[in-house]
Amino acid sequence: MSEQKQQPLQVVKINENTYRIEDNGVRSLLFIGTEKALLVDTGFGASGSMKEEVEALTDKPVVLVNTHADGDHIGCNTQFETAYMHPAEMPYYYTTAKPDASVCPLWEGDVIDIGGRSFEVILIPGHTPGSIAILDREGRILISGDSVSETPVFMFGEVRSLNAYIASMEKLMKMQDMFDEIYPSHGPFPVAPAQIEKAHAAAIKLAADELEPQEPPFPIPAKMFSSDGASFFF
Length: 234
Fold this sequence. Notes:
The structure is a single chain. This protein has 234 residues and is α/β, with parallel strands linked by helices. It has one domain (10-233): Ribonuclease Z/Hydroxyacylglutathione hydrolase-like (Metallo-beta-lactamase, Chain A, 4-Layer Sandwich), CATH 3.60.15. The chain is 18% helix and 29% strand. Helix 3 (162-173) runs antiparallel to helix 4. The longest helix is centred in the C-terminal third of the chain and has 14 residues, at 194-207. It is globular, with a radius of gyration of 17 Å.
């Protein structure tokens, strides 16, 4: 059977200074400030040049931040000089890629100022050890990576931790008055903050072995577990 043909990168304008770049089921996000631009993740890397797409949208210097190091989020990292991520993610990053770009740390509470817009780093381990969310306080937006989504969250494999994920959802639940929308990396866009509670409740049931396994919609070494609008591959 032949592999499914990859579609070219698709740029979708959110507003005058914000874009999502869709790459065959995963998305990157571009935020443009008065001094710099923030690029969140770089996709699969098989459907075109992320750098060329970004440069067509802005001439500002680009700060690349990875929400985590799964392969569909770091595919075009080598097109950029520097990639920023939480240090807890770096060991995993070097098992999934051999980057030419330098890797620099982002810590919990760090603020990325791009001129007129600032973004705060929030550590939310579970999906991977160094998964982060990024909070735009002024815009009242949470960028969630893979951790909050209306599509199933991958929670199988050595780097995943369901207990850490539950704790991270509890952390985000306490911050819900700070944002009105969630920008996820997969699936419907945007997502309501209530998805955090749904994910937390479903993860609690999964940890307690209260959910029935289902066959996933594509071949992976895991089962799918769903409850009340949230689901996991586990």
